[in-house]
């Protein structure tokens, strides 16, 4: 039985391009982001992959990415579940700010700690650990059982919600997850063993 789980970070958003903290704000994809999402779908199709179910967040950039991927796969009618648990990390008071402006206000070192630490949240926002605290239970109770029963599963979400998920899959520590980078629009293909551990991981780069 195939236990397939594929993760895709949404394509470049308008605020990614403008170097703004995004979080739960809802900018659209750029033209480049649209093409990244389409390219992700083409890579999955070229690898012979198809899906039985898809999950995404409540944010438009992830939903649009998923739609573009499924269009390339010829699976536009696929059952799709949208959940807030898969939303991007909430950046609180940083949301909507230019990253350079945030550094000018709070200092480069403090902003770096908020962005790259594991458990220090920005004012009014979430740390990566906080993000994981909503992603991990949802993965364990809703996503993983389907994968283990042979449902080929696609998750289109965000840099930090997927980093939290990959922390579990790749057995990363609070220290090593800090260095995990996830490119926009690049599918990460996991095949799982019968004990839920990872049998194979493949990054479908261009």
TrEMBL record:
Known pathway: Carbohydrate degradation; glycolysis; pyruvate from D-glyceraldehyde 3-phosphate: step 3/5
GO biological process, one term: gluconeogenesis
Pfam families referenced in this protein's UniProt entry, alphabetically: His_Phos_1 (PF00300)
Site annotation Transition state stabilizer: residues: 158
Entry EC no(s): 5.4.2.11
Enzyme's top EC category: isomerase
Active site: 10, 88
Catalyzed reactions: (2R)-2-phosphoglycerate = (2R)-3-phosphoglycerate
Keywords: Gluconeogenesis, Glycolysis, Isomerase
Signal peptide extent: none
Top-level taxon in the UniProt lineage: Bacteria
Binding site for substrate: 9-16, 22-23, 61, 88-91, 99, 115-116, 159-160
InterPro entries linked to this entry: His_Pase_superF_clade-1, His_PPase_superfam, PG/BPGM_mutase_AS, Phosphogly_mut1
GO MF terms held by the record: phosphoglycerate mutase activity
Family label: Belongs to the phosphoglycerate mutase family. BPG-dependent PGAM subfamily.
Function description: Catalyzes the interconversion of 2-phosphoglycerate and 3-phosphoglycerate.
Subunit structure: Homodimer.
UniProt-listed PANTHER family: PHOSPHOGLYCERATE MUTASE (PTHR11931)
Protein name, entry field: 2,3-bisphosphoglycerate-dependent phosphoglycerate mutase
């Amino acid at each position: 039985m195939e236990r397939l789980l594929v993760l895709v970070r949404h394509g470049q958003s308008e605020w990614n391009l403008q170097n703004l903290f995004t979080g739960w704000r809802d900018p659209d994809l750029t033209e480049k982001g649209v093409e990244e999402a389409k390219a992700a779908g083409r890579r999955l199709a070229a690898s012979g992959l198809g899906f039985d179910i898809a999950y995404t967040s409540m944010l438009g950039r992830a939903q649009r990415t998923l739609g573009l991927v499924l269009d390339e796969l010829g699976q536009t009618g696929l059952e799709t579940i949208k959940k807030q648990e898969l939303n991007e990390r909430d950046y609180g008071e940083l949301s909507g700010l230019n990253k350079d402006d945030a550094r000018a206000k709070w200092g480069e070192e403090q902003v770096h700690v908020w962005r790259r630490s594991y458990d220090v949240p920005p004012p009014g926002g979430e740390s990566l650990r906080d993000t994981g605290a909503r992603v991990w239970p949802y993965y364990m109770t809703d996503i993983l059982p389907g994968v283990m029963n042979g449902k080929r599963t696609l998750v289109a979400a965000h840099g930090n919600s997927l980093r939290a998920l990959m922390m579990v899959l790749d057995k990363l520590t609070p220290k090593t997850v800090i260095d995990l980078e996830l490119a926009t629009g690049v599918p990460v293909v996991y095949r799982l063993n019968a004990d839920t551990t990872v049998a194979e991981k493949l990054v479908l780069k261009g």
